[in-house]
Design a protein that fits this description.
Elements (H helix, E strand, L loop, with lengths): L8 E5 L2 H12 L5 E5 L4 H13 L3 E5 L4 H9 L4 E5 L11 H10 L3 E5 L4 H4 L9 E5 L13 E5 L1 H13 L6 H11 L2 H20 L4 E5 L9 H7 L6 E6 L4 H10 L4 E2 L9 E3 L11 H6 L7 E4 L5 H13 L2
Parallel strand pairs: 2-3, 2-4, 4-5, 5-6, 10-11
Antiparallel strand pairs: 1-7, 6-7, 8-9, 9-12, 11-12
Helix pairs in contact: 1-2, 1-6, 3-4, 10-12
The structure holds pyridoxal-5'-phosphate.
Length: about 325
């Protein structure tokens, strides 16, 4: 992982959240100020809204794609800048190079969650980021059978994270380490296929008369496409979309018509997975909180697998014809 991310050092953790909490708890203490964005993974945002403030860390969450607002918040004082791109589930894109510069100008440690992109599609360290985090549970393992987390970056920072993780008992289990290493042997092959499949599916959905909006950074219509083109080698396997009619009944009917994918909360596996964030990844938020995060109640998150793209498109087409 150290080599894949071009890092000085790397360490592991029991899960993605084990890695994230080890980074945040080892690098922030009473009186510090952290800046992040509203669209980080649900568990991460709970760190910023609940656990860190309880320990005297001031946390500011900015609108995810408002780069000027993030820069202004950083300039007010920032010990740690925490970014994630593409985001979950609305697949927003953040300019890592631009914000890493702003973070360093304020003397901050700059951290990025690279789970959705993977090191095959994006290397945050080459864009100026100090520490990169992965939920290895997703693409790195790739088979939905192991939990794990990874942290890569500057050796002095990784050493602090390792120390915290060791004492707090978030060590990666041996069986998971074995499964993750085995999964990573096919990472590059899987990601190339998922990039290609997702692009073909996003193009199909974008022109389908029953689809309202498609969120995929590979599409020219995506607001973050220009930044994604600059900092990513491939646009990844994650997308989300809304159906015309915007009703939960319609979405449920559509999902039940899909036969070639799992209906689950997980993502990043060899199998295609579909789910509604309102009832899976963001079920813990209230409808008002989801609205504030810009997550439509009827949004469908679609994690593209390595199946044949034509089969997946036919499956989507059949399910859409039912609604
Ligand atoms: C972007 C991102 N980061 C971190 C995590 C947390 O990872 P884990 O489930 O391995 O704790 C997730 C989980 O969905 C995620 O999507």
């Amino acid at each position: 992982m150290r080599i894949l991310e071009g890092a000085e050092a790397a360490t592991s953790a029991a899960s993605g959240m084990g890695a994230i909490s080890s980074v945040l708890c080892s690098l922030l203490s009473n009186g510090d100020r952290a800046v992040s964005v509203k669209d980080t993974y649900g568990g991460t945002s709970v760190m910023f809204t609940e656990f860190l403030p309880r320990n005297g860390v001031e946390c500011r969450l900015c609108d995810t794609t408002d780069h000027e607002a993030i820069e202004a918040e950083i300039a007010r004082g920032c010990t740690l800048l925490y970014l994630e791109t593409p985001t979950n589930p609305t697949i927003k894109i953040i300019d890592l190079e631009r914000l890493a510069k702003a973070g360093h100008a304020a003397g901050a440690v700059v951290v990025a969650d690279n789970t959705f992109a993977t090191p095959i599609n994006q290397n945050p360290i080459s864009l100026g980021v100090d520490l990169v985090i992965h939920s290895a549970t997703k693409y790195l393992g790739g088979h939905a059978d192991a939990l794990g987390g990874l942290v890569c970056g500057k050796a002095d920072l990784v050493k602090k994270v390792y120390h915290h993780r060791e004492i707090h008992g978030a060590a990666l289990a041996p069986m998971s380490a074995y499964l993750l290493l085995r999964g990573m042997k096919t990472l590059s092959l899987r990601i190339s296929r998922q990039n290609e499949n997702a692009m073909a599916i996003a193009r199909f959905l974008e022109t389908h008369p029953r689809i309202d909006k498609v969120f995929y950074p590979g599409l020219g219509s995506h607001p973050g496409h220009g930044i994604a083109k600059k900092q990513m080698r491939g646009f990844g396997g994650m997308m989300s979309f809304t159906l015309k009619g915007d009703s939960l009944e319609i979405v449920k009917k559509f999902l039940s018509g899909l036969t070639l994918c799992h209906k689950a909360a997980n993502l990043g596996a060899v199998e295609t997975i579909a789910g509604i964030p309102a009832t899976t990844s963001h079920v813990e938020c209230t409808p008002e909180e989801r609205k504030a995060l810009g997550i439509p109640e009827t949004l469908v998150r679609y994690s593209v697998g390595i199946e044949d793209a034509d089969d997946l498109i036919e499956d989507l087409s059949n399910a859409l014809s039912r609604v």
